[in-house]
Structure formats: structure tokens, C-alpha cells
Amino acid sequence: MSNSMDSKFLEFWGHLMLNAAQGQKQIESFQKWLGKSANGLPALTSAEKKTDEDENFMSVFAKVYGADKLPEGKSSSLQIMQNATSAFQTSFEKYIRLLGAVPRDEHVTLQEKYETLDKKVSEMEKTIALLQAQLGVKPDEPEGLTQGIKDLVVKQGEQFQDLMQNFQKLYKENDSSSSEKK
Questions:
Q1: Is residue 149 in a domain?
Q2: Is residue 1 part of a domain?
Q3: How many helices (H) and strands (E) does the chain have?
């Protein structure tokens, strides 16, 4: 997959931007046209009644992508139109990303993932609160959670001090006995 933009997409987009400069109505129509499909190009075979704006955008699309002179109904024509649609969709997604936007389907997926994780965090917070209540720990006093660790550290410190004192006594005894031998 090439990182360069499709020249036909850019030409199509250029035509659209020139046409859009003719008025706000065309912008609104274009937004509706794109909104009819999740992938950036309305379905070619739709049960929905096509409006004049739909026809206008589709004719610009067909002209730019070379599908305006294809005979209708042939499998080769359908394949060319599907290829053009696929190229447009890929380029449209690249363009949207270039603008710093995220395609709607990715946004919806991330939103659903966020909501699932938010619900899971809420359940975990409830579980933590329940466990803290069972242990008699107040949630706003984190010292209660670490008291056991603090006690262990203090006890280990005391044991280390005892060990060091014993080493000192042993060293002094060895040092005095070796000086007496001299």
C-alpha cells in the first residue's frame, strides 16, 4: 500500500472543493451524502431514493474516476466502479487522518472500549471499597492499607540492628583476643 495520495482522489476532492465554494447548501448536501454510508461513499445500489445532490456528487465521482462512460450492467463496469469506490475510500481515510480526525467506525470502537473499561473500573472500585470495609480500613486513610508492610519493615530494621550489634560484639571479642595473644 503506497503512502502517496491517489491523484484521482485529489482531482475529485479539488472539484468538490470548487463546487463547495459556490455555497453552504452544497456543503450541507455533501455532508448528508457522506453520512449515508459508514465508509465515506454511499452505496451504489441503494433502495433509498437518490436526490439531485446525490446524483451531482456521483456524477463528479464517476467523471473523475473514469466511470462515467461505462456501459451499465456489465460485470467489468461493476468491477471498475468497485475499484474506484475502494480507491476513494482508502484515500478519503488517509485525508481524514491527515486532518487529524479519526474515522467514525474507529471512534465508535474506541468509545465502546472506553465504556466497557469504565464499567469495569467502577466494579473494581466497588470491590475495593467492600474489601476495605471488611478489613476495617477507611478509604481516605491509605496508611491502613500499608500498616502491615510498615510493621514488617520496622521489624526487619530491628532485626538488622540486632545482627549488627552481634557482629560488633563478635568483632570486639576477636580483636581483644588477638591483641592479648600478642
A1: yes
A2: no
A3: 6, 0
